[in-house]
Design a protein that fits this description.
The protein is an alpha/beta fold. It is built from ten helices and 13 strands. Helix 9 runs antiparallel to helix 10. The two termini are about 15 Å apart.
Length: about 325
């Protein structure tokens, strides 16, 4: 294994977040990759950062690089490929508006085995409600489930859980949906020192803003391109969770190690981009639950393809996605 990788996609010039990440990566022997897009600056210079322009991406020995759309968050997949090919010991991802806090590089190979509070067979679990006394929910959580009976967190089972996918929360401007931002108050800080994981038949969306992935779960990193930008990491998370069940993996959620100074957004546009999720996230969970998948890390690719084929059949993701999934699996093989 080589060192860990931090992967970000950005069209910004080196800003305060990117500079902070570069400095922290240098101090911690972490490789820092930034994947650019068509709107990225022509010249991008930042010590401690390996920047990949569109032209440089097209020169990669990669099937996906040839066909993944420009002007889309899905280009982040190319950063994952670079890390996987270099045998990264872990892949950490965040965005260019999330400032790292103490503990951001908390990962360690041993930390895949986590002594956490864990839930199984609970259907939807609003994990954010365990980190705050304020009514709050993560982006991607089905709105129709918000009034459902709350999970009793005191009844969680404490044990050593295998968690090769780990989601850290974000303080100040956490990852909530446009409905929340339009009607509720921010900023908000979450409680410290909490770890909770979800196992089989327990759903909660996770994002790409502060997430650690370990090697056995790398195939599940894939971000879809032919869906709403606001749903690409959320729908990835549902697919990753469903496949994780077959391997007795939990998804870990832990207290914030970043705080967000959010880039400018049009909240009504965000709302419009999230409508496909508001209408379908619960349906997606039901449909993925019905799929016959197989256990084993050697089956992750087959399971990934089955999940995306079902999403295409449901007319939630365009059929153009499937060649990208095949290219991804070929690139990381």
């Amino acid at each position: 294994m080589s060192s860990p990788y931090l992967v970000i996609t950005s069209i910004a010039a080196p800003n305060a977040v990117l500079k902070a990440c570069a400095e922290l990566c240098t101090q911690n022997n972490v490789q820092f990759v930034v994947i650019g897009d068509t709107k990225s600056p022509a010249v991008f210079e930042l010590d401690g950062c390996d920047f990949w322009s569109i032209d440089r991406q097209l020169g990669m020995d990669s099937e996906l690089a040839k066909i993944v759309p420009t002007k889309h968050y899905g280009r982040k997949n190319l950063g994952y490929i670079l890390a996987i090919r270099d045998n990264a010991s872990a892949i950490i991802e965040t965005d260019d508006d999330n400032f790292p806090m103490e503990g951001f590089f908390k990962f360690d190979g041993a930390e895949q085995k986590v002594p956490s509070l864990s839930f199984e067979n609970q259907q939807w679990v609003n994990v954010y409600s365990h980190f705050s006394d304020t009514k709050i929910w993560p982006r991607g959580y089905p709105l129709e489930q918000l009034q459902a009976a709350k999970v009793d967190f005191t009844k969680a089972e404490k044990g050593l859980r295998h968690c090769p996918i780990q989601q850290g929360l974000a303080n100040e401007n956490p990852d909530v949906d446009a409905v929340y931002r339009l009607i509720c108050e921010l900023p908000i800080d979450f409680k410290d020192g909490i770890e909770i994981s979800l196992g089989k038949n327990a759903w909660c969306p996770f994002n790409s803003q502060n997430t650690v992935w370990y090697p056995e779960a790398y195939p599940l990193l894939y971000l879809p391109s032919y869906c709403s930008f606001r749903m690409t990491d959320i729908w990835r998370s549902f697919i990753a969770q469903r496949i994780a069940w077959e391997n007795n993996w939990d998804i870990l959620f832990y207290s914030p190690t970043v705080w967000q100074e959010r880039n400018e957004h049009n909240l009504l546009k965000d709302f419009a981009d999230e409508v496909s999720g508001y209408l379908n996230n619960d349906i997606i969970a039901q449909e993925l639950s019905k799929l016959h998948l197989e256990p084993g890390t050697d089956k992750l690719g087959d399971n990934l393809l089955k999940c995306y084929q079902r999403m295409v059949e449901l007319n939630l993701i365009g059929k153009e996605e499937l060649p990208l999934v095949h290219a991804w699996l070929k690139d990381i093989a």
